[in-house]
Amino acid sequence: MNKNELISGAANRCGRPQTIVKECLDAILCIVSEELSKGGEVKILEFGRLYCREKKAHTVKIPSGKVIEVPAKNVVRFKAYSHFNHYSTKY
Q: By the 8 A CB rule, do 76 and 51 touch?
């Protein structure tokens, strides 16, 4: 599912125009991005938690034999709440 399919599905379920749903989704994504860029976290009840974690600097050896130094950086992580685990289990 991509962003347009998500917007279309939410608009159909809520009975609202897709333009309104798109504006709301864009606003939510902007707020989440701002919070994560400040180093905060976003918890959505019954869904999951988005947070930033620092990935340490390390070296990588590529196939040509060169060794490359990879600098430290922040990465975004998502932790789904436990009740989502049954959705990924094949019966």
A: yes
CA 82 to chain centre: 17
Contact 52, 36 (CB under 8 A): yes
Tokens standing for 1? Answer: 């599912």
Q: Are 74 and 54 in contact (CB under 8 A)?
A: yes
- Structure pTM? 0.75
53: CB partners within 8 A, 6+ apart: 74, 75, 77
How would you write the pLDDT of the chain (91 residues) with one tens digit per residue? 999 999 999 999 999 999 999 999 999 999 999 999 998 999 998 889 999 999 999 999 999 989 999 999 999 999 988 877 666 665 5
Residue pair 28/10 in contact (Cβ under 8 Å)? The answer is: no
Largest Cα span, the chain = 58
